[in-house]
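agent> Task received from the user: take the single chain below, predict its 3D structure, and emit structure tokens. No templates, no multimer pairing.
agent> Plan: (1) validate residues, (2) run structure prediction, (3) serialize to tokens, (4) report one or two observations.
agent> Step 1 OK, no nonstandard residues flagged.
tool_call: predict_structure(input=
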Amino acid sequence: MMENVDAVTILGLMAGTFTTLAFLPQVIKMSRSRSSGDISLLMMSLNCTGVFLWLLYGFFLSSIPIILANAVTFALLSYALILTIKHR
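)
tool_result: status=success, residues=88
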């Protein structure tokens, strides 16, 4: 299967992995500390909406890197948004 994956797809998967993982420490910190006072609810809402739109865009393009990265990021952001609202 990997022999059919081109360099651009690998680049997209790598980019998606790093940008998704970059947000993971914040989500873990919010979950453990039960604190989100320094997190902007507006920023979280806008970011969550933007990532959801990127996910839809990925589906329209049938782009696996865009779909995977944004599906995972959307799940993380949704959880972080819930924590932000819950711990206010």
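agent> Step 4: summary for the user.
The CA atoms of residues 37 and 81 lie 12 Å apart.
agent> Done.
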